[in-house]
Design a protein that fits this description.
Layout (H helix, E strand, L loop, with lengths): L3 H15 L11 E3 L8 E3 L1 H4 L1 H4 L3 H10 L6 E7 L3 E6 L1 H4 L1 H9 L13 E5 L11 H19 L3 E8 L4 H17 L16 H13 L8 H25 L6 E4 H6 L2 H8 L4 E4 L2 E4 L10 E4 L8 H13 L4 E7 L5 H11 L7 E6 L2 E5 L2 E3 L11 H8 L1 H9 L7 E4 H4 L7 H18 L15 H11 L1 H10 L4 H20 L8 H24 L9
Parallel strand pairs: 5-6, 5-11, 6-7, 11-12, 13-15
Antiparallel strand pairs: 1-2, 2-4, 3-4, 8-9, 9-10, 13-14
Helix pairs in contact: 6-22, 7-16, 7-20, 8-9, 8-10, 9-10, 12-13, 15-16, 18-21, 18-22, 19-21, 19-22, 20-21, 21-22
Length: 543
């Protein structure tokens, strides 16, 4: 396959070299022309090199063009103050078809593997109830970041940090005890104000009765530990089942309780000793010695740990397991967390820049023009599972990554449920289904993978778009920007629909042209399926 953009960059690099300018390939910007009249690709390199060559950009462009002699280029024009427009031979563009069909599901994957080991921790919801919309968006974005890194050739581990120690687990136990008594017919207990009201706890309590009967009706330390331990396990299993349905699976589960029991918190306290000081009967960490805006409490005046202390031990543990890059996908309310954790890692001798934190902004859910209010503790939340049941997992995943993680998201339930082109998920999946149907119709026709008859504007445009996919994956992975893939999918879907509508793909009166167009359809279908797979969305054959 001829990589047009890389070939153009190399050609320009060599031309500049003859002019006495050494330039890196990544410094040469190649853009696809929006208007066919301006060629297929364009560069502004002549303007960016004006200072180095002490000449007008238009003259530099003329010198560059004079030193280009490549067979894959049909024509070169100089426009405006120094734009260089390239017209590519159609058979050079169509060479991508054979490559895509040969690589199939692997098309878009990096040719070279990277050595870095990347750990992505996401969701990590407390095992105290169901997953809400914030968790769902974090799951969609975190999982897609992992898929992108894998496609880009990285070794990735998906990790879930289980907060199974601390006050929230005590509140869970207190709430489960009330529900356990209720299931056994004792309604004398009342849910505490800081307890959990989710109806899921009733189901957990029923399982506990099935498991131990009325053994723990009388309060005891053994019983309390049972409600904490088993309650956490039951609810974590439920969270994992829901995440599996959401097409998210984790490689590693790390337990806060295990970290505490292994003495890792005390180990960290000892290692950080020179940065610690006491004030008002509390133990502080001098994070302002690094990049934090204020010092942080490690141990409160009552002797209990702040959540920061075991978190430091946990991040140390991740680095000690050999990961080169750590990525935490967290809610937007963790903004102040970034510098305190980076500072803590620097104190321990790790590279703070190896820790990357992606903050996920809030989701607002709208239906019939009105916002759904969410409250996890009172049990009135719209959960991830309920949302998926209503509009489908495909729509939820697609919508949740369609904007940058740093942007707030208004999720329109009405739009997500529409079976029309205004719904971006339907629009993309329908493009795949359309190609599937026409390929089924032409299944007995031998395909021309050279695409020698593809000359129409919509055909050539589609060839350019499908050839962009590997680059789009690489950029989205590098920037940890899943929304760039949904942007690409919409561009691809538009190109497919235009090709389908304006070029008669299946034409019994011209089987030779049909053969070329079916080959393009097959390649485009592969790319759409691969792109949807990167974001965890299905590619239906029929709609």
């Amino acid at each position: 396959m001829l990589d047009i953009e890389t070939s153009l960059k190399t050609t320009i690099q060599n031309a500049l070299k003859t002019l006495g300018v050494e330039i890196a390939l990544e410094s040469i910007v190649i853009e696809r022309s929006k208007d066919k009249a301006h060629g297929d690709y364009a560069t502004t390199v002549a303007m960016t090199q004006a200072r180095n060559l002490h000449k007008a950009p238009a003259l530099i462009a003329k010198d560059i063009v004079a030193n280009i002699h490549e067979d894959f280029i049909e024509n070169i024009e100089i426009a405006g103050p120094g734009f260089i427009n390239f017209f590519i031979k159609s058979d050079s563009l169509s060479s991508i078809i054979k490559t895509i069909v040969a690589e199939g599901d692997k098309y878009g994957e990096a040719k070279e593997k990277h050595e870095e080991k990347i750990n992505v921790e996401f969701v990590s919801a407390n095992p105290t109830g169901t997953l809400h919309l914030g968790h769902a968006r974090g799951a969609a974005i975190g999982d897609t970041i992992c898929r992108l890194y894998e496609k880009a050739g990285y070794n990735v581990t998906r990790e879930y940090y289980v907060n199974d120690a601390g006050v929230q687990i005590n509140h869970l136990a207190d709430s489960l005890i009330v529900r356990y008594h209720e299931v056994l017919g004792d309604n004398s207990r009342v849910l505490p104000d800081d307890g959990y009201h989710s109806k899921d706890l009733i189901e957990v309590a029923k399982k506990m009765v099935e498991e131990v009967g009325d053994k723990y009706l009388v309060d005891s330390e053994e019983g309390y530990n049972y409600f904490k331990r088993r309650g956490t396990k039951f609810l974590l299993d439920k969270l994992c089942d829901d995440l599996t349905d959401f097409r998210v699976k984790f490689d590693v589960f790390s337990s806060e309780l295990d970290i505490r029991n292994a003495g890792k918190v005390e180990e960290v306290l000892d290692l950080l000793k020179k940065y610690e000081y006491n004030e008002d009967n509390a133990l502080f960490l001098r994070t302002t010695d690094f990049t934090d805006d204020k010092d942080r409490v490690l141990i409160k005046s009552d002797g209990s740990y702040t959540y920061l202390l075991p978190d430091i031990a946990y991040h140390k543990n991740k680095f000690d397991r050999g990961y080169d890059v750590l990525i935490d996908v967290l809610g937007a309310d963790h903004h102040g967390y970034i510098e305190r954790m980076k500072s803590s890692m620097a104190m321990l001798g790790y590279n703070p820049n190896a820790l990357n934190i992606e903050l996920i902004q809030m989701v607002r859910l709208f239906k019939d023009g009105e916002e759904y209010k969410m409250s996890k503790r009172t049990g009135n939340a719209v959960g991830m599972k309920e949302l998926c049941d209503e509009v489908g997992t495909d729509a939820v995943r697609y919508f949740f990554i369609s904007r940058a993680a740093s942007s707030h998201l208004d999720f329109d339930l009405d739009l997500a449920g529409k079976m029309e082109s205004s719904n971006p998920v339907y629009y993309a999946q329908y493009a795949h289904a359309r190609l599937s149907q026409v390929l089924e119709k032409g299944k007995d026709i031998a395909l021309d993978y050279d695409g020698k008859l593809l000359k129409e504007e919509k055909e050539l445009n589609l060839l350019k778009v499908i050839s962009d996919f590997p680059k789009e994956v690489a950029v989205a992975a590098k920037e940890r920007a899943p929304y760039k893939i949904t942007n690409y999918i919409q561009k691809l879907a538009t190109s497919i629909h235009e090709f389908y509508s304006e070029c008669r793909i299946y034409d019994e009166s011209n089987l030779e042209l049909t053969s070329s167009r079916l080959a393009l359809a097959k390649a485009s279908k592969i790319v759409m399926k691969n792109a949807l797979e990167v974001i965890g969305v299905s590619a239906p054959e029929k709609m």
